[in-house]
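FAQ: What does the model actually see?

It sees only this:
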Amino acid sequence: MVKKVSIENLLYLRVFALCMVVLRHSFAPFTGAWDTKIDFELNEFVSILGQYVSSISMPLYIFISGLLFSFLRNKLDKYPTMRILIKKKTKRLLIPYIVFAPLYILTFLTFDNVKEFIFHFWKGAGHLWFLTMIFFTFLVFYLLEEKFKNNFKLGFILVLLFFCFFPFYFYLRLGPFAQTLYYFPFFYIGYFFYFKHNIINKWLYNKKLILLCSHTIIFLITIYVQDKIVNDLFKSIFNGYMKLPLGILSICIIFSFFNDMQMSKNVTFNNLLNNISEKSYYIYIIHQPLLKLLYSSPFLLKIKPSWVISISFLSTLLLSLLFSSFIMKYKLGRKLIGA
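And it is asked to produce this:
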């Protein structure tokens, strides 16, 4: 039996995606991805596990943005004009970036002059790169939406071409434009998952195990091949290209799993999910600074990596939720993110 996309189940999916992003960042000190005040010992197994989480987290997070945008456009007729879209997304995305990015740069990044500060701001301050990337994604997609609807296959070919030239974009230091074109396929897929849900759900039905095995095999092959590549540039390009099939497969697996779920009848559990979902924006903004502060504690060096990651993930998620709840009580806090 093929089910229609359930917006209620998207609540689960959204919270899961957010948790995956926080979890992925919890691996960072053990993979060399972050510079921390104390030196954590790099751990190969933790690094591989972190890469596996990474193959799911951001593709899924961006996919949900496309899915919800499609719901708002096709179901609720939101954003009737480009002007309205730009106005709303500026309040929701650009203003928060302009406010929080300088604070992040001043606190966690190093720079010797104004030029370096501006470069950090343009490139994307830490995890806040997502805000500018998704802003330009909305704009680009809105301009091409009708063409994509009229010719889905041609649109997908165009999106793949955007993706395939990603090394060129980053070489030119195009900042959020480069990130937009790189992650655009996942937003595009999210849009058509809602728009073409009957066809896609029918194709995904009863294929979870096949998709999971395919994802795992491709991931293991990726790990094996990347270890054989000596040149760092070629390794980076190879890993970049492999994110597309891994991301698409992980999206299909997670989406089909959550779309088949029945909503829990536990009121407390559902209230918690709703609370996390409502505060997800601030949780995303707050979680990485909290993690960086947490990973400056020498005490963590005495604990096994698995425990450090678990404790850091859970405590950061909880603290982010508490801080977000406090901030959202105030009108300025809500206004700051266009809520």
